[in-house]
Fold each of these.
Amino acid sequence: MNTNLFSDQNYQFHKVLEIASNGQTKTFVAIAEAGTPKLVVKLMSSPWGELTPEIQRRLETFLELKAIGIVPFSETHKQGQAIYLVREYVDASSLMVNRIQHPEVVETIAIALLEVLYQMQAQLPGIVHGNIKPANIFLRPTASQDAELVLTDFALPLVSQWEANLTAAEESQFGFVAAEQVVGNPTPASDNYAIGAVLLSLLSGTPSHQFATLACTENAYEYPVQEILLQQPFPMSSFFMDWLTIMLAPNIGDRYPDARTALSALRRIQVIARPRVRLNPSIIRLQATQFGEQLQAVIEVRNLMPGTILRGQWRVTSYWHDAGDWIEFSPNRVFGNETTVLLSIDTQKLLAGQQYVRELVFQSNSERPILAVSLVVQTGSLKLPVRPLPVLHLTGLLVVGGFLPIALSIIL
């Protein structure tokens, strides 16, 4: 290859980054002048030798784009029938190299990617990246401990209009492109699909060139997200699995429509799996047959999420006139995934013949941190014993009742 790349610039060839299936160098690193930063040059072969007006407008947008976390193309060069795109060289490893699988790290990457897309989609007009895949996402070291996410290599034609781009898509992008983008109707939801694919690739430890093998046999654009994630060593929450399933929905109408919506939904959920609690029963009704009776019931507490440990504590909703001290739990604190809790009710502390309704609140480290069981207690009636009077007492009452009027009449 000629080391002097362009006649109008002294760009010197440095090293190859990508080779197309036809053996042609497609992406390489170049140096403009001694001592200057390295640059990445991408070759686009056009049968017309010119950029179409649509692509030209898109490129002009990139040249003016200023956004955090984005490395747009900065220059174009034409040499014969070839068109070269130039951008800054990112001195960092891409996600294609870094096989990151821990859900909390992947969540950080997801948020950073969606924030970048949010900036792009807020432009007028909004920008669709169209080429999101692990090879185009970099984690660049910074002075602090946190790495900076950088997104590169926007797709100029958003559909495979040129043979060179079609070849590239088949080689490294298949599986990361939504169905509607392939047929020429890309939207912000198409970039969401690509992000979902990148995240699933990282979480499952699947290399980019093998990612498409995870797709369902009946639909190349559909992935069994939950089935794949449940096989991973790190337990993930059902909320996150549902979120990622929406990101990767094959039908665009079932996906989050843009980065802002997807980001808002992600920030409301936990990615790491939490215990999933089932309380049985959900309502308890107790009836006392006499005043002061001790009542009991059993609550089964179960954790349905494997790989997690449930921790929680019971309390009772209280009122200003009633602290709920007539209700006891044994045990009051729960540690474990299957616990039988004995509920004891002391109706002697309650009024007779009354109905009491309370919420038994279980607060825990589960997906739903607060759950409740409804308690309805009917106390017994207060009945005083009726005992017959002794015979002598009755006789005395009769005598007094008979002679008392006569004695009063004599006195008067």
Amino acid sequence: MNAETARQFFRKTYGSEPDTIGSAPGRVNLIGEHTDYNGGQVLPLAIDRRTYVAMKRRSDDGKSRIISDTATEGAEFDARSVERSGQWWDYVTGVFAFAEEKSALPQVDAAVTSNLPTGSGLSSSAALEMATAITLAQLAGDRRSLKELALLAWRVETQFVGVSCGVMDQFASALGEKGHALHLWCDTLATEQVRMREAVLIFDTNSPRSLRGSQFNVRQRECQEALELLRQRNPELSNLAAATPGEVRAAHLPSNLEKRALHVTEETRRVESLVAALKETGEIDGDLLYQSHESLRTLYECSTPELDWFVDEARKIRGVRGARLTGAGWGGCAIAVGELEALSGAQSSLISSYKSTFGLDARTWLTNAEAGAKVETSAK
């Protein structure tokens, strides 16, 4: 899939050529899970699966229209007065809702195409938000930076759609660079690009989940409760990730809050260690990935039998350096990192064995670190 696919779908739908096409990738997170909304550090990378948004100003200035090649239903909406619907197009219309100078926004025809699976933990929502944001910005003459557009997309996710997440997904989709992972400090929004040359196998367990229906918001509230209790002992604590594991243990928090806080404080330190290893050796420290998964399984309690199975199986494969779940968990995807030949050769046997074990058809993709959001074509 590419921009030409998006152009053809738009033309087939609306009978004309789009003015602008933008795209944005999904992401996998190498390490740093559930640290972003706790002010910690993360290390995601953009993948080679993308979402495209083709858009055209409406000459008759009627209502805007939106359609997707992966959805059975589209919608009409007023670009200057958007209302939340609870449907998939909120990720698109929310960008209009948070745009500057809404009274000057054009009514548009928009078409979405994507080869990025939904509900798998690869940030399909962030990709859709970012692809919409960069396309609308180009169409409307909005000169905000990619970082500013990423923050707009994050506001759409948290304030319009209603998922209480951190900034990682939108930043990874916006700022990814080919051949690099994005080291992001979520409290200050500082970033650095870290050379990442190893291949990544994405294993979609095909056990989809929705963050709206999972325990994601519950975990976010638990982390906030833990932070409030820790601040009774240390009022200067800026966020949960800034606490030390020693502080957490010394606070004698309720058991579930202690587990969540220990994961967050230890996980953000694993990010630091992995970045240091990449800079020094150019290779992933696989032990840190396995430690991360075990913490997500036992302390954050967001893994599943399917995700655990993959990590256990990946550990047996020669040439695999490390593996863990990626994304929020409760289903979705896991990753294995290592030698391209080893990962490629293991795909079919993993899929077959997984089918025998769980009766589910897994999907796999090999990727390297790819580029972030961009304008593909524009008549401007």
